[in-house]
Backbone:
């Protein structure tokens, strides 16, 4: 069907009924729109991979409507994890822990762990609660493409592959959740996201170990080198912004975290006040707008890698094809090694 309907109480209950019947339902979370199926219905979960054209080696996040439901998914909840759940759930934080045998291999890509989070969006929480089961849900877009922040984005990417799309308006955070792996008493950052690492470290009173040395299969979504990519070639600009005012930018659009006076209508200002929350909120929508405007190339001006800036730069690097620099008065594009 691929039908887009407003996320009224009646329609949320309809979505829950469809989920219980093994259908696919797209729904808003505070981060991006998700494409959901009941976690234990393996055929329904397989349809997620088919609809998104997602490789089966990329594990899914399972969403719950209450902390108590993690007992269906994790073998145990260590005290350190409970501290994070009490403080950051519901919210954009995903935890990866050893799974129970009730979680099908297709959800975890055969791994012994499962990623779980409790979203902070009333539509998502009601949908999962009314369904009665945890819901496996990656972002509701074609694999590798820009994540959807509006119901229209889901329809554009997936069309009739989705049985129902609940329209809850534009998502509020705009980038996906932070993902942490808890292993042998330590927390490892698998993906920066909507919760700043610094806030987690402050709560725990210790450092999060940045992702290094994880060879082999992806341990969580969003760990591939190329992801979130628009169909427009995107490059991260290296150098002083003033240099761009002196080169030919014909056909090139610029994504900027602050106002720029010398680009006219070819600049997408993501925040008038250089507010990283606003930059994150508008980032994916701007990448999709680049496609609609048929830009030949796009440049992204980087932000400091602290707080939410870490997640923003993670998305930009994975969405980009390389970097751009001004050399001898000309703009030079350097492709990254894939």
Residues:
């Amino acid at each position: 069907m691929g039908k887009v309907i407003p996320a009224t109480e009646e329609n949320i209950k309809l979505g829950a009924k469809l989920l219980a019947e093994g259908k696919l339902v797209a729904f808003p979370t505070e981060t991006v729109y998700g494409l959901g199926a009941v976690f234990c219905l393996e055929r329904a979960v397989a349809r997620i991979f088919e609809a998104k054209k997602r490789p089966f080696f990329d594990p899914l996040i399972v969403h719950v409507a209450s902390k108590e439901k993690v007992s269906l998914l994790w073998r145990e909840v260590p005290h350190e994890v409970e501290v994070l759940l009490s403080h950051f759930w519901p919210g954009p934080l995903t935890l990866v822990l050893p799974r129970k045998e009730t979680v099908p291999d297709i959800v975890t890509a055969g791994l012994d762990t499962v990623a779980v989070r409790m979203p902070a969006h009333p539509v998502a929480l009601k949908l999962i609660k009314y369904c009665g089961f945890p819901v496996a849900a990656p972002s509701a877009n074609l694999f590798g493409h820009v994540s959807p922040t509006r119901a229209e984005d889901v329809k554009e990417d997936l069309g009739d592959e989705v049985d129902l799309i609940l329209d809850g308006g534009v998502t509020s955070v705009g980038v996906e959740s932070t993902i942490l792996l808890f292993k042998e008493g330590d927390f490892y950052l698998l993906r920066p996201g909507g919760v700043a690492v610094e806030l987690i470290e402050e709560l725990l009173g210790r450092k999060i170990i940045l992702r290094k040395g994880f060879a082999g299969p992806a341990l969580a979504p969003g760990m591939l080198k190329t992801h979130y990519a628009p169909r427009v070639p995107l490059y991260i600009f290296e150098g002083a912004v003033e240099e761009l005012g002196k080169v030919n930018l014909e056909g090139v659009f610029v994504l900027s975290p602050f106002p720029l006076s010398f680009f006219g209508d070819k600049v997408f200002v993501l925040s008038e006040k250089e507010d990283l929350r606003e930059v994150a909120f508008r980032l994916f929508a701007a990448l999709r707008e680049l496609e609609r405007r048929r830009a030949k190339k796009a440049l992204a001006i980087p932000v400091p890698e602290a707080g939410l800036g870490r997640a923003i730069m993670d998305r930009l690097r994975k969405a980009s094809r390389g970097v751009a620099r001004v050399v001898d008065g000309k703009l030079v594009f350097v492709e990254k090694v894939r």
About this structure: The chain has two domains: 3-210, 234-335.
